Amino acid sequence: MVRNILLWGIVMAMLSVLFGAFGAHALKTILRPDQLQIFETGVRYQMMHALALIGFALYADAQLSLGMEQKQIRWVARLFMVGIFLFSGSLYGLVLLANYSIGLSRILGPITPLGGFCLMLGWAAWARMVFIHKVDK
Questions:
Q1: Range of the domain at 7
Q2: What one-character DSSP code corresponds to residue 65?
Q3: N or C, fewer C-beta in 10 Å, the chain?
């Protein structure tokens, strides 16, 4: 399980670099500056939370040996992953599909804050784990 969390973090980080390069080179001439800024926000949050997943995997690996339940670890990882997909994914969709479907923004627009809320819940769940599982060595 921890290995999968680590792999997801690495893949999300790699994709954020790919999307960032795509935005900086291919989209720079196509998008308006405000659209490019929205796309870059998606890339930035994806990278931050990919690194959070990597750090969390390392934390979780150490905690499993101390008796932490896998269920708690899964919840944090799922919240981060869902948050990345909803937050960054909706921003990518809003920008890339803006010229093709006006109605799509009505669907994707409300998804972005839901993704942000999942990211916040992921951080809160991790903080709860740290607070509850004090280990005196």
A1: 2-132
A2: T
A3: C
